[in-house]
Design goal:
This protein is an all-alpha fold. Helix content is 82%, strand content 0%. It is built from seven helices and no strands. Helix 2 runs antiparallel to helix 4 and helix 4 runs antiparallel to helix 5. It is globular.
Length: 144
């Protein structure tokens, strides 16, 4: 199996653990403090990861980057932050299974934008898969 596919599987595994661990840890903390603590840990680990993989030369990589790329990455940071803020606020008072399920519906937005903006292929198979994902979200949240 290709390395990037293994990494994607690991990302999904850790993402699934993240929601349950976060909800469990928020029992006596508000969503904002919980998110801030989590983000400090994320920041520390990401910085260590960057230093390990860039040979402790991240400034050279940043200097070589195009301003447009830096701006897009900064905007990605803003949208990530907003996603996390709303996710934690929803998870504090809602059920983690519902919040996580709806959050995973972001794949529909990703598929549409990757087709429109990045010009990635949107095949019939992709359309069927996206429809099934959307149907799954509806079915799993259907109140009987």
């Amino acid at each position: 199996m290709e390395t990037w596919k293994i990494q994607a599987i690991l990302a999904a595994l850790f993402a699934g653990l993240t929601s349950v661990l976060a909800k469990s840890g928020m029992k006596n903390l508000g969503p904002d403090v919980s998110l801030a603590l989590r983000t400090c840990v994320v920041f520390t680990l990401v910085m260590i990861n960057m230093l390990v993989w860039t040979g402790a030369k991240p400034l050279a990589a940043l200097r070589a980057a195009q301003p447009r790329d830096l701006a897009l990455l900064a905007l990605s940071g803003v949208t990530t932050s907003l996603s996390w803020i709303f996710y934690y606020r929803a998870m504090k008072t809602g059920t983690v299974s519902f919040v996580s399920l709806v959050d995973k519906g972001s794949i529909i937005v990703t598929l549409l934008l990757s087709t429109l903006v990045l010009r990635e292929d949107f095949s019939r198979q992709t359309a069927i898969g996206a429809t099934l994902i959307l149907a799954g979200i509806v079915v799993m949240n259907w109140k009987s």
